[in-house]
Design brief:
about 120 residues; mainly beta; two-stranded antiparallel ribbon; globular
Length: about 120
């Protein structure tokens, strides 16, 4: 049986795609500039103004495996805000992908409650 991997592979998003990511403690706004994870990010207390960053992947806040290029449910996100500044967020619970004339919402917290 094939395992279903939940989440968003940001490397497959068209440049210009925007995301609203809801974590346990904050909301982040992302706009991807290329297929490699370069993005404009804002949100939370640590990024009050938009800035260019590199999205690294899904990561646990206290260390542990990183899933490069993915936004995964119930796992935090890691950004390289500069060469010396890394941002690790709280766990992702909901995501909204906003394309050109469309959007799609993934509410993993609601899904977990229904299980």
């Amino acid at each position: 049986m094939k395992q279903v991997i939940k989440g968003i592979d940001i490397r497959k998003l068209k440049p210009g795609t925007k995301l609203e990511i809801y974590t346990r403690h904050s909301t982040y706004y992302l706009e991807f500039l290329d297929y490699g994870g370069k993005c404009i990010v804002s949100g939370g207390v640590h990024v009050p103004e938009p800035l260019t960053a590199q999205y690294v992947g899904a990561a646990y806040r206290r260390g542990g495996p990183i899933r490069p290029g993915w936004i995964s449910p119930f796992v935090g996100m890691e950004f390289a805000l500069s060469q010396k500044r890394i941002l690790n967020t709280s766990s992702v619970i909901k995501a909204k992908i906003i394309g050109d004339g469309w959007d799609y919402v993934m509410d993993w917290e609601e899904e977990a409650c229904d299980a």
